[in-house]
TrEMBL record:
The keyword Ligase does not apply. This is Nucleoid-associated protein ACFQZJ_18390. It is found in: Cytoplasm, Nucleoid. Coiled coil: none annotated. It holds the Pfam family YbaB_DNA_bd. It comes from Maribacter chungangensis. Binds to DNA and alters its conformation. May be involved in regulation of gene expression, nucleoid organization and DNA protection. Homodimer. Gene3D superfamilies: Nucleoid-associated protein YbaB-like domain. Belongs to the YbaB/EbfC family.
Amino acid sequence: MFGDMMGMMGKLKETQQKVEATKKRLDTVLVDEKSQDGLLEITLTANREIKKINIDDNLLQDKEQLEEYLILTLNKAIKKATSVHETELAAVAKEGMPNIPGMDSFLK
């Protein structure tokens, strides 16, 4: 019994280390998003840190339009980056979980 418990604790510690390594790796995974017409381009990391924003000169003429573009495109980029982030971390966590009947459906 204690051997199983120690094995599980070791596996959990290993999984925790893998999760931390994955979080660091996600700093290097870039997610790009563009406005529909391509006038605004945004690049984020999968950890949702903004790395680059390219604004077409035409958008600089209208403050309200630029603000609208930024809100829409940033929200789409954040949603995409969050999806990558959650998928990657869930895969690592699932890999490290002990084989407990019924847990597969819980983690989906």
